[in-house]
Specification:
CATH superfamily: Inhibitor of vertebrate lysozyme
Structural class: alpha+beta
Strand content: 15-25%
Radius of gyration: 19 Å
Number of strands: 5
Number of helices: 5
CATH topology: Inhibitor of vertebrate lysozyme, Ivy
Order of helices and strands: HHHHEEEEEH
Strand order of the largest sheet: 1-2-3-4-5
Length: 151
């Protein structure tokens, strides 16, 4: 009887741990939620450093989270895993849309600002140009076209 109770407690603990762990790595979080983590906030801020012009709404999003977003997704690009998030300017989503990619390995984030389907600016790519990042640019650009609002 004691062995059965011990086994029940072990199974309950395992299920509890599994539920907790799966939530901790759940990629169905919004950008404002991940930016509460100092590591993500630092990488977010770094992509705007040394930039000549950054839209005010995008800079303001860091402090006020005033933007429209959808849950992030984990995606594999050229063999590397990224956590992809997007945000757009309230009341002007079609013309002001930003996609950010946080590499799961903790390296520098990169982002692309769109005006409709047109890329208006790349952020963070100048830190480490490579063939891999060219594939990231292409993937993020194609992702925008697939998710562009049609109405």
């Amino acid at each position: 009887m004691a062995a059965i109770n011990a086994m029940k407690h072990l199974i309950a603990f395992a299920l509890f741990t599994l539920c907790f762990t799966s939530q901790a790595f759940d990629t169905k979080t919004y950008l404002f939620q991940v930016l509460e983590d100092p590591h993500y906030l630092k990488r977010w801020s770094q992509i705007f450093e040394n930039e000549d012009s950054v839209d005010d709404w995008l800079i303001g999003y860091t402090n006020e989270y005033d933007g429209v977003s959808s849950p992030g997704k984990e995606e594999i690009i050229d063999g590397s895993t990224y956590e992809i998030h997007n945000v757009c300017k309230p009341h002007s989503c079609g013309d002001n849309y930003f996609v950010v990619a946080f590499p799961k390995d903790g390296s520098s984030a990169v982002g692309i600002l769109f005006d409709g389907l047109k890329v208006t600016k790349y952020f963070g790519f100048n830190l480490q140009e490579s063939a891999h990042l060219e594939k990231v640019k292409e993937h993020l650009g194609n992702r925008r076209i697939q998710h562009y609002p049609t109405n």
